[in-house]
Amino acid sequence: MTMWGTEGGVRxxxxxLPIAVTAALLLTGPVQSEPNAGTDAFAPVEEYAxxxxxxxxxxxxxxxxxEDGTRTIDDLTDVPKARNEIEQLRxxxxxxxxxVSDNGELTRLGAKALDHARGKLKTLEQDTRFxxxxxxxxxxxxxxxxxxxxxxxxxxxxxxxxFSELLKMLxxxxxxxxxxxxxxRAAEATKVIRQLTSELRDxxxxxxTLIGGIKPPGV
Length: 219
What we know:
The chain is mainly α. It has one domain (40-212). 88% of the residues lie in helices and 0% in strands. The protein contains five helices and no strands. It has helices spanning 7-76, 79-100, 106-125, 132-172, 174-212. α2 (79-100) runs antiparallel to α4 (132-172). Residues 10-33 have low confidence and may be disordered.
């Protein structure tokens, strides 16, 4: 005889066994899943902390961009500095014009080179150090050089005159050039402003995410 006594007792034990197993599974189930449940519960907090760290890390870069942008705009809108640029242009033009003017040093270069070639040719004709065929060979080369120097001097003179006229024209348009340069500086300042605007909007989007995560979910 079993501990349950009769055949009916055996049947009752068979019915009871699944219930007992089920109860044991129910009791042990939550204990096994508890670590994962805890990790999932803290996931939003960890994600929020990561975003806070990211914002804190990027904040100095944004601050530097604002500082650099402010300095750049100050420079671009600095009137005395802008005037200094046109003054530098005037000085460069005046210096060049002094060199290429009708009585400038450039007008003497071609003549100086031509006088030298002609003088060598004349001296060679009276030079007795060389044999006749050598003197003839050298004279022929110097004659060729005289012709080349004449053409080069003419080209230089034409280029000098053209450049001189252009410089004079530039001098008469300095005020207009000054305005063009100021427009360019203002356009650069606008680009800086737009870039700063983009940086601030990007930072604002991240900041809204941080502020939205301050409240617990569902509150």
